[in-house]
Amino acid sequence: MENKTKFYTDYQSLKDSIETITKNTDGYNYTYADLIAVKDSTDKAITNNGFIKIQTVKEGQGTYSREYITHLKNDKQYTQFQEKTKMESQAYVLNTKLIHKETGEVIECNIPLYSDDLDPRAIGSAITYMRRYSLYVILDLKTEDDDGAAASKKVKSGGFNKAKTPLPTEFGAAKQFLIDCDNPKMYYGEAKNWEDWMQKAELIAIIYPK
């Protein structure tokens, strides 16, 4: 019982020591705290209160079904012919653990990982997103306001100046548009649905450079 009391005391101390996280990144029509901001606000507090944080990807239960489009190649060029392929893939989860060093007690959080695109950047983005939100859950983090709620309020109140400018439909113009754009990440959805897969890869490389 004494160990449990120490664990709960340290966990409450950990939560109390983390201040409200300031949102520092604009994208997807709202402002949010990126992973670096969340880590900067929590890593030191976790260590100072006697905990270790571990985040890993592990297999979940079942599979995900995705339907994607491939472009077939003939002898001369890549054609516009599209073939829809259905792919079954293993389900994965983002597993986050807070381990109390003194007692060995563990708080654990599993959040499903899902990406609607097979592009590695999309998968990486899903992992980053869930790393943030698993910390929100497991540490009961306070932010300035909820991402979705903030976006909803802005839409209802006319808080956005204008709807975002559409991504040009001509490849050259789209490429230059993303290069000049202050926040190209907000156009990932349009880029990943680009018809020509080679051009799509170039556009996504601008949005998420290596």
Report the end-to-end length measured between terminal Cα atoms: 50 Å
Radius of gyration: 21 Å
User: What's the number of helices?
Assistant: 7
Largest sheet: 3 strands, antiparallel
Question: Into which percent range does the helicity of residues fall?
Answer: 40-55%
Can you tell me the overall shape? elongated
Q: Report the oligomer.
A: single chain
Structural class: alpha+beta
Order of helices and strands: HEEHEEEHHHHH
Percent of sequence in beta strands:
25-35%
Write the layout of secondary structure elements.
Layout: H1 2-17, E1 25-27, E2 30-32, H2 35-48, E3 51-73, E4 78-100, E5 106-113, H3 120-139, H4 147-157, H5 171-180, H6 188-192, H7 197-207
Antiparallel strand pairs: 1-2, 3-4, 4-5
Overall description:
With 210 residues, the chain is an alpha+beta fold. The protein folds into 2 domains: 2-57 and 94-146, no CATH class; 159-210, no CATH class. It is 41% helix and 29% strand. The chain contains 7 helices and 5 strands. It has helices spanning 2-17, 35-48, 120-139, 147-157, 171-180, 188-192, 197-207; strands at residues 25-27, 30-32, 51-73, 78-100, 106-113. Helix 5 runs parallel beside helix 7. It is elongated and about 65 Å long. The relative contact order is 0.15.
List keywords for this structure.
210 residues; 5 strands; three-stranded antiparallel β-sheet; alpha+beta; single chain; elongated; two-stranded antiparallel sheet; 7 helices
What is this structure, in a nutshell?
The protein has 210 residues and is α+β, with helices and mostly antiparallel strands.
